[in-house]
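Repro:
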Amino acid sequence: MNKPELVRPPSVDTVLRSPNGELAIARYGRTAATDAIRHVIERLRAGGQAEPTSMERLGRLALDRLEERERPSQRPVINLTGTVLHTNLGRALLAEEAIEAVVATMRAPTNLEYEIETGSRGERDAHVRGLIKELTGAEDAILVNNNASAVLLVLNTLARDREAIVSRGELIEIGGAFRMPDIMARAGATLREVGTTNRTHLKDYAEAIGPETGLLMKVHTSNYVVQGFTAEVEPAELAKLARQHNLPFVDDLGSGTLIDLSRWGLRKEKTVQDALKGGADLVTFSGDKLLGGPQAGIVAGRKDLIAKLAKNPLKRALRLDKLRLAALEATLKLYRDPDRLAQRLPTLRLFTRTVDDLRALAKRLQPRLADTVGTSWTVETIDCASQIGSGALPLETLPSAGLALRPAGKAAGSAVEKLAAAFRAVPVPMIGRITQGALMFDLRCLEDEALFTAQLDALKPETPDALA
């Protein structure tokens, strides 16, 4: 049987003069439009196109290609995972006040390092330092780009070519296989492990102190808890021991919070203020976790030690830019009004949503979701448990509610994975989690109900039934 004769597609110039071609030029420029049309034509030729292809279709294919190319790599998603501070999804959402501050800072030159009153050079941390001192009671503070950088700067400044004494039970690994011993090594400090994984006593620290000791350090275990036959030294005891030997005591809180979370029914987490009152000379913590601000690393504590950190050349390499400083300043100012903090700070607002409200939301969305996925899937409202995330309060869960999608019949094992992929393919990807053979949407982080339903309209109509 003879192969059909290939059809010659319209020329590039002809497609450029079509309505879609002119639209492509208007949106993306003649060069990009020309390249996209040429690419589409070459693909049709390579595929052995035997049917006529209209200029309109070629132009539409070229437009689709350009739109896909220009789509931002970092896109908004709908977090239905049940993890509030999800590292992979950007951690804390910024308050409106912080967003407005960032936008204003982007649109004009600012006095980032300029003293308006004197007309002389200023210091960028000054925009936030006063607020940190006010809220924590610290003598001074310094800012870097995340908490790992804060620890790196402290160790490199105070324990370079010396020993940093840490309990074996606190040698943590955080996300991405990033380990505390590795940070110490990069900082030029020698790790001196004391005690055992589950039990460390004050005498272990005392016996390890020698002429090479640079500091004593306590590290918040963040994403795990050692339970059972355990013992650890209270920070106040470590602080006293450090003072006796004229050594700095550093308390790395990891996530870090400025408020007592038990006020809103959560388990109490040691605050920065608690750490300073407990005798820490320096406290390190994050800006984008429990604090609810932008990514930042904060060191608060003794003025003389902060001055040493500021003189370290690493500080310039690790400093914050003007946008995150603006966002952090606006976020910290919200803490001056703790009575309204749960309404104004998104992280705390999501923590404190009631399970009754979430159940009501699930019942409103259930019929619409069931109608979208069809009879091949069952959709039910369920109770579930949300997580804080980002290593904060690892054993703490929040009663929540959501929707579970399960195949109605004996579907293939990959059906749920394929359905999850289909929901990720909508314009604003819907990110849930797969558990016990079901695709689960925890609704704790869903505040825009209309956005959710709009994505259901965009779900490919053939997808749900075809996957079951």
